[in-house]
Amino acid sequence: MRLLIINPNISQSVTDLIEAEARRTVAPDTQILMATAQNGVAYIETRFEALLGGHAAAVIAGEQLGNYDAVIVAAFGDPGLLALKEVLDVPVVGLTEAALMTAAQLGQRISIIAISHRITSWYRECVEQNGLLGRLASIRHLDRPLRDAGSVQQDHAQRLLELSQLAIREDGADVLILAGAPLAGLARGLAGQLPVPVVDGVSCAVAQAQLLHRLQAGLAREGSFARPPAKPNQGLPAGLQALLTQA
Amino acid sequence: MRLLIINPNISQSVTDLIEAEARRTVAPDTQILMATAQNGVAYIETRFEALLGGHAAAVIAGEQLGNYDAVIVAAFGDPGLLALKEVLDVPVVGLTEAALMTAAQLGQRISIIAISHRITSWYRECVEQNGLLGRLASIRHLDRPLRDAGSVQQDHAQRLLELSQLAIREDGADVLILAGAPLAGLARGLAGQLPVPVVDGVSCAVAQAQLLHRLQAGLAREGSFARPPAKPNQGLPAGLQALLTQA
Amino acid sequence: MRLLIINPNISQSVTDLIEAEARRTVAPDTQILMATAQNGVAYIETRFEALLGGHAAAVIAGEQLGNYDAVIVAAFGDPGLLALKEVLDVPVVGLTEAALMTAAQLGQRISIIAISHRITSWYRECVEQNGLLGRLASIRHLDRPLRDAGSVQQDHAQRLLELSQLAIREDGADVLILAGAPLAGLARGLAGQLPVPVVDGVSCAVAQAQLLHRLQAGLAREGSFARPPAKPNQGLPAGLQALLTQA
Amino acid sequence: MRLLIINPNISQSVTDLIEAEARRTVAPDTQILMATAQNGVAYIETRFEALLGGHAAAVIAGEQLGNYDAVIVAAFGDPGLLALKEVLDVPVVGLTEAALMTAAQLGQRISIIAISHRITSWYRECVEQNGLLGRLASIRHLDRPLRDAGSVQQDHAQRLLELSQLAIREDGADVLILAGAPLAGLARGLAGQLPVPVVDGVSCAVAQAQLLHRLQAGLAREGSFARPPAKPNQGLPAGLQALLTQA
Amino acid sequence: MRLLIINPNISQSVTDLIEAEARRTVAPDTQILMATAQNGVAYIETRFEALLGGHAAAVIAGEQLGNYDAVIVAAFGDPGLLALKEVLDVPVVGLTEAALMTAAQLGQRISIIAISHRITSWYRECVEQNGLLGRLASIRHLDRPLRDAGSVQQDHAQRLLELSQLAIREDGADVLILAGAPLAGLARGLAGQLPVPVVDGVSCAVAQAQLLHRLQAGLAREGSFARPPAKPNQGLPAGLQALLTQA
Amino acid sequence: MRLLIINPNISQSVTDLIEAEARRTVAPDTQILMATAQNGVAYIETRFEALLGGHAAAVIAGEQLGNYDAVIVAAFGDPGLLALKEVLDVPVVGLTEAALMTAAQLGQRISIIAISHRITSWYRECVEQNGLLGRLASIRHLDRPLRDAGSVQQDHAQRLLELSQLAIREDGADVLILAGAPLAGLARGLAGQLPVPVVDGVSCAVAQAQLLHRLQAGLAREGSFARPPAKPNQGLPAGLQALLTQA
After folding, report:
1. Strand pairing of C233-234 and D40-41?
2. Confidence check: pLDDT of F98 > 80
3. What is the rounded CA–CA span in Å between residue B78 and residue E72?
4. Binary contact (E120, A174; C-beta < 8 A)
5. Is the pLDDT of residue A126 over 70?
């Protein structure tokens, strides 16, 4: 199986974190193809940045068409995820979606630990779009400026642990999601120190993508995830053009 | 007041329909600036097409920065709407949002009449994102292929009237929204023939944009509609770059 | 356009505050007709008081029948609003409804700042009746006794500002509503001092009433806002009788 | 125990139906005091008519103050119910509320059978205000004009039975409510003919009022059902004045 | 009327508390039959313990078949309640269900006071299953270890009072439920000391069971509370076997 | 990895269907251990039957303690699932939960195809307990009596296909779940004939159980899925006793 993992922001250091965690999770027979957005911002925290990231992810998905059996959009918040599902005939997985659907099997109420205050509104809307707001116990977040997206885990380890404990004791969380690609791999590190199950988006997404690939559940030829109806288009980058004109 | 109206799809004939309805609604002292997406598809019915439309709308909003006092994203479904609200210091209005908030003052339960089956899933998600799913009585839709987005009103007048009556009598609608730019102006034509109030997105959006401009409610310097935090970006079209680097 | 603004409580000082803010907002060609409830209480904070206010508002609407093109029920909580919509052929607008539908276009999550603890339960139910509970970030309130409904703004300016800031920072509000006729005009005063958009019910209601009047969306001859079915009645004040026996 | 049953519409024939069913249900030691609205309409089907009925019911409750140990507002839709709970120190029970809370103990999903199409919107809003919309399977209704509110049961017996069966088989109802005072007593008659439990509002309200009286759960001195804060009032009928000025 | 009250946990001391409160509430012509689970745990706080308790309650209900006219499952959280309703032709009442439906007639927003932190998750799910999560103001709980389920009321009286006051003042509760059989009777004791109505599950359940018995609303022969379809079974205790093979 | 799959009903023919589908899905290094309930009914369609099945499943899980790395409760409706998660230190997966969480990654709106009318109420409640009612498009069901749980697929193939198509075209389903162990494997057979993705519970549960085992997300030592607090118990079968007294 060939798995395309798209980092929809432009930071190679974040791509590296994602790749490292993906490689810890992936099955031996899965080939990973990493890609980093060619345009956009260093880290996605808002709806506008997600619009940029979703577009950049789609361009990559189109450029690589034929080279993969499943795709991961590797930013929590899942920029462009539902759009890509319409145009691709392979499973498309998002970090939030995969983490929520995995966490939901480990506990009834879920808390998300995030890396900034600003990002929490966008995350909340993403949980709501997944239809799981009723199972969200809380979103807790770091409240100090980040020195570097690549070193969040080291810089804020103690505070992340405290936030996790507050989510459990104050908010009623049964399970935690450490959210955002900069925290990729941290769940693995904290698992022993926390009294509830904890997951991160990258490993969940890799595992769910493999699962969906193996299930071969069939393609959407009708319903709202069928390909968009054929119609004129113009002015699009080659990648996007490719997605609209598949046989 | 200068009002930028962006058609996020590439069809000049739809832009013309939008403009005609906008001019019927607009106040004498409002100047209208029309713009048509330079890239994308002929008509937006799906999430992927909305991703293209939202991106194209943002490019235009950035290119025209400084030339307008309010913006309308003139496709029902509101592609890119929340994203643009983050980066602009003027009111940004969507057709769905404006129609819903207007209709909600005319009746408790709202039905939407749409031009295709495919488009209804996207519309429903948009109503949900507006938080008004509890007030949605139904979405009814034309079920025959459209000959031309520019002549839907003439080709399907009788069926649109029947759908409206079904929404009232079967679904409990108190008020109707004729949805989608190709139906712009139809509400005006049918008003006398229908036994409940009926609105369309274009006239609602023009009226609400003028209202918001006059209220001068203040800018978002905090909260989730403040500008995205400053951070590196790369590879963006000039319009998008402009939106990220405003003083 | 002739706009009837009904203060459903008996306080002339509150009517004056409402009128002053209405005159700041209104279009030049709109004539304002103010009316104060002839019976009821000094200030509406509860469901029982709202029942009194709704009845008194309906009496006035009936007595003035034919003298207006739109009506505003000018108490936050909207006493009698849906009832009046059934019997009047002109737009009827409430402060809560208008403020919510306006605020919802300025931000995703809305906080309400209220003048007493007691009033918050009634407000919350009103938000729920509008179907927008999912977009309510919080209701914050003054917690000290009010010296005078007419001087709340001066007496509590600093605390109102603090409450607004808490709503933004603690509750995730993107936009604020300063609620209740005694706060009419305060949004205008605070706009520069708050980091998010802020609206009040009076100016929103005036603006939305004008908007609905201009749209001429059509009358409800079916659906749940059509006139009540003709049937015997007895013992009603002339104003209410007039509403039931219109041609 | 003295039980005041207020018919909030002006029809003595409906009062008689209510009384007959109440007497079939009531405990031997309960005295029933019937009262009919002195002003209002013949039958309440809409929000405006409910505003009239709620006001008329409050006047009666005030005039009879001291003469009862519990009150029933005896129209489905519960006009004025929450308002009266604020000002009275005895249990106040509504037909919809009592029927819903009783039915909810007999089945998970509830259908309501109503006597007209128009009335269904108001009923639905009342179910929503009770917070039980999630348990509503459907509202089915007679669709032919009523000859007489007093003879609905005889005139439409067969159709009421058919509607009940459709609610069970098509809508998934586990339990039925025959709604509206004109159907008072019909549940008793149909019980043997229907394959699920069936209740009506009058007998539920009488039974729940007795239950609440016996429980003596305590008075609301705080919270949103405490008496409205003391404040000036003017121009009110003696009954309403009495409610506001209790010791 | 013969009323079977099943304590689904194995503690005779809790059965005694339940019986004492039941006897304070019950009508003179009702005979009470107490039963204590023969297997299970000392006190039910979790879903697993509820599974044990529901099974044990069903065994008793089957063993006593024919000896009662109504059944109460006397643990807050209602283990096995919906299951028993399917197989019994008499009313089956749960403490949570009865307390919620009673409290909902005394106030709009309800708080529950519980005896341990652990128990709150299960209670919340039970409120949600009743469809009343929207009316739940909060669940507050004792946070110190219980010395003895039989003496909670004495040991923690002051803290229970404080929790009640916090629920009213901080959470907006209009009415309180003192939850869990170990608190049976406490509501009666605190009623005078609390400024809102307060109920407990046992007295509500007894009263509602009597009410449902008197209403004789009819049996479920269709719908989801009809008896399970006839089919082979094996290996069941005599009590359960009896429930499946009734004529 | 050792995977215990418990059929919570007593039908060996259903166990065989489950096993066959499980073996088609399972990874080469996973050992399957099948178990069939020793007591209960032939097929679970109702809440009471689920209570029996949940209890029987728990007994097996306790008897086999130490012999498995993950457990599947292999009846759609997930009897006993949340209870078992509390007492086991390994992943516990249910057919409904696993199918929903998988389907939710393949489409926004999900329809369930069920084998009887009666079973649909219980399924709907299970979807609601999973918090995904908002994503349920419909539950469609066979409406003719089943000749044999083991031959449903052959007997009703054409009707199952028709129901699937109705769910897509009438109800807006993007993805289908063929529900109930008797349909195990059918999704695989129909995949090519249906225009949307289709999954079944058994293969989803096997795949998700393997995924959760590999993620090693950590144990619940706090929160509502920690072990029940230690306390006296009595009279339990050895299996259940074992679950309560683990080190």
Report:
1. antiparallel
2. yes
3. 53
4. no
5. yes
| Spatial separation of the C-alpha atoms in residues D215 and D163, rounded to whole Å | 37
> Which residues of chain D carry a pLDDT beneath 70?
149-150
Report which of residues C150 and E213 the model is more confident about.
Answer: E213
Q: Is residue A66 a contact partner of residue A90, using CB atoms and an 8 Å limit?
A: no
**Per-residue pLDDT for E145 more than 90?**
no
Lowest mean pLDDT among C150-154, D184-188, F184-188: C150-154
> Could you tell me where the beta strands, DSSP code E, fall in F96-234?
110-114, 136-141, 175-178, 198-200, 233-234
- What pLDDT does F149 receive? 67
* Number of helices (H), then strands (E), in chain D: 10, 10
- Position of tokens 């249900």? D25
Chain A 220-239, residues with CB within 8 Å of chain F CB atoms: 220-226
Q: Strand ranges (DSSP E) for E88-222?
A: 92-94, 110-114, 136-141, 175-178, 198-200
- Chains in contact with chain E (at least 3 beta-carbon pairs closer than 8 A): A, C, D, F
Query: Could you give the angle at the alpha carbon of A87 between the alpha carbons of A83 and A92, nearest 5°?
Result: 70
Query: What is the set of domains in chain A, with CATH numbers?
Result: 2-94+204-244 (3.40.50.12500), 97-200 (3.40.50.12500)
% of chain F beyond a pLDDT of 70? 98
Bridging pattern class, strands E92-94 and F92-94? unpaired
Closest CA to F4 of F25, F28, F22, F24: F22
φ, ψ dihedrals at A80, nearest 5°: 80, 5
| D173 Cβ under 8 Å from any chain F Cβ | no
CA-nearest residue to F206 within chain A is: A211
Indicate the burial class of D164 (C-beta count within 10 angstroms; 0-12, 13-18, 19 or more). Answer: buried
F193 contacts chain E (CB < 8 A)? no
Mutation target to probe the D interface, by most D beta carbons within 10 A, among F112, F117, F121, F140 is F121
Cβ-contact A123, A139 below 8 angstroms: yes
Whole-angstrom CA distances from C117 to A148, C14, C77, D85, D86 are: 44, 19, 14, 19, 15
Distance CA F115, CA F147 (A): 11
Task: Spell out a b/e string for B153-175, using b for 16 or more CB atoms within 10 Å of the CB, else e.
Answer: beebeeebeebbbebbeeebbbb
Q: Do C108 and A120 touch (CB under 8 A)?
A: no
Which tens digit of pLDDT belongs to each residue from A144-175? 777 776 677 777 888 888 999 999 999 999 99
- So what's the pLDDT on residue D149? 67
* Chains B and A touch, using 3 or more CB pairs below 8 Å: yes
What value does the mean pLDDT of chain B take? Answer: 94
Contacts of B48 in chain A (CB under 8 A): 58, 83-84, 86-87, 228, 243
Whether B199 and chain C come into contact, CB under 8 Å, resolves to yes
Q: Hey, which residues does F233 pair with through a beta bridge?
A: E41
Q: Residue ranges of the alpha helices (H) in chain B?
A: 12-25, 47-63, 81-87, 95-103, 119-129, 152-155, 157-169, 186-190, 201-215, 238-244
Neighbour count for residue D151 (Cβ, 10 Å):
13
Do the Cβ atoms of B3 and B68 come closer than 8 Å? Answer: yes
Compute the distance between CA of residue D65 and CA of residue F163 in angstroms, rounded to an integer: 60
Residues 100-129 of D with CB under 8 A from B: 120-121, 124-125
> In chain D, whose CA is at the least distance from the CA of B174?
D121
CA neighbor of C218 nearest in space, from B66, E48, D47, B168 = B168
Geometric angle at alpha carbon F226, from F220 and F228, rounded to 5°: 165
Q: Give the per-residue pLDDT at A144.
A: 78
What is the least distance, in Å, from the CA of D118 to any CA of chain B? 10
pLDDT at residue C192, rounded to an integer: 80
Which residue of D lies nearest to F119 if distances are taken between CA atoms?
Answer: D172
User: Is C43 near chain D, with CB under 8 Å?
Assistant: yes
